[in-house]
Task: inverse folding
């Protein structure tokens, strides 16, 4: 089983940055595709970014391209999301997830963290 714990969320002014981390408990972390999603109040869960097990390929939602960067350190069993030039519309609970197949659907990921709150003020 894969257990995931997010950290690094908080409150920041528009234009600021946060680095989110997701720590995994499994020794087989390097075998999983990792993804980041977010969910704002009253909205559906939204795909943000993903990185394959080798770390050699990434994919981003149009809303965050050029501002967010996903990376992973398999030696530390950790995936990161660097968020830059944050906007009020980025406010949401951010979740990390682990899967073995597809890219951008919630159904592609079998394991989920509990989320970390990101609040961007104007």
Result:
């Amino acid at each position: 089983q894969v257990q995931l714990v997010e950290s690094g969320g908080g409150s920041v002014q528009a234009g600021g940055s946060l680095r989110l981390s997701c720590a995994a408990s499994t020794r087989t972390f390097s075998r999983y595709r990792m993804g980041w999603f977010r969910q704002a109040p009253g909205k559906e869960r939204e795909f943000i970014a993903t990185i394959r097990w080798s770390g050699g390929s990434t994919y981003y939602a149009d809303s965050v391209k050029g501002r967010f960067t996903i990376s992973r350190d398999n030696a530390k069993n950790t995936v990161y999301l660097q968020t830059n030039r944050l906007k009020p519309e980025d406010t949401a609970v951010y979740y990390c997830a682990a899967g073995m197949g597809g890219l951008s659907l919630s159904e592609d990921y079998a394991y989920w963290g509990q989320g970390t709150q990101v609040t961007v003020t104007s």
User: Anything to note?
Assistant: The longest strand covers residues 92-99. The radius of gyration is 13 Å. The chain is about 0% helix and 50% strand. The chain has a mean pLDDT of 94.
